[in-house]
Amino acid sequence: MSIQFSSVIAARTQGRGSTFAVKQIDLHELGKRASPVAVLDDFRVTGRPFGPHPHAGFSPVTYVFEDSKGSLRARDSLGNDAVVGPGGVVWTQAGSGLMHEEIPADDRELHGLQIFVNVSAKNKLTPPRVQRLQGHQIPEWHNNAGDRLRVVVGEFKGLSSRITPAEPFNLFDVELRREITFPLPAGHNALLYVLRGEVLVRADPPGQSVTAEHAIALHGERGGDVVLQPVHSAELVILSGAEIDEPVHAEGPFIMNDASQVEDAFTRFRKGAMGRLTPAHGG
Q1: Alpha-carbon dihedral angle through residues 224, 10, 210, 240, given to the nearest 10 degrees
Q2: pTM
Q3: Cα end-to-end span (Å), the chain
Q4: Residue 1's pLDDT band (boundaries 50, 70, 90)?
Q5: Domain tally for the chain?
Q6: Is the bond leading into 36 cis (omega within 30 degrees of zero)?
Q7: 283 assigned to some structural domain
Q8: Strand, helix or coil at 5?
Q9: Is 123 helix (H, G, I), strand (E, B) or coil?
Q10: Sign of CA dihedral 245, 216, 179, 133
């Protein structure tokens, strides 16, 4: 088969009282087919459950869903301090390391997607860089059937996001009414997470039904087209990129290739090489 399917994985709900709740996909169950995605969390948060913290060796990404009542305040040790509203995204290329803090901009509930996107060894120590887009800056593709695809990151049918990752990656927010098709190149993986409704995922010739709060991974062994059909209507996100066939050593806030690289990252952090960031005060 040109495209291989994983089993369907249900999100696990976790939380901290009334201030933080997350529907988390256990990507370990998907093995290499989840690569380059290392974390996928559908979260709702009020208050400030997390203070400033470091990252290195990958790209933490926060996408604010359009239905979010609140906005995201994103701060970092590079000097950025910005508010991103519903439909917007913050892409943090952590590289060699930086400090950041992402919190609700006000007292309203923030609904978003937290993604950790791994990078290959050649890009783990690149200079840190932060990119962001507001909702109105994200291109949208539509068809006559009422299907809509927001090109948050990457490219689809001639539409390109202004976010430029260190390595090519797609993040699409899709509203399905009838059907869309997207290509999955050879050697690439796609991770599909259904937010609402039910989606039939088809590719030469297998098909699999995926319901709300479930995910499936696809591997383009030789590449091919993936067809998505809703039962009634549905919403899902598509994450895709080239599979990284390298060792992964994740510890705390760092994702590297081995333990010595993680220890080097902790050393840089302790010495202040990732910068300083005090907790935010006020909205």
Answers
A1: -30
A2: 0.96
A3: 52
A4: low
A5: 1
A6: yes
A7: no
A8: strand
A9: helix
A10: negative
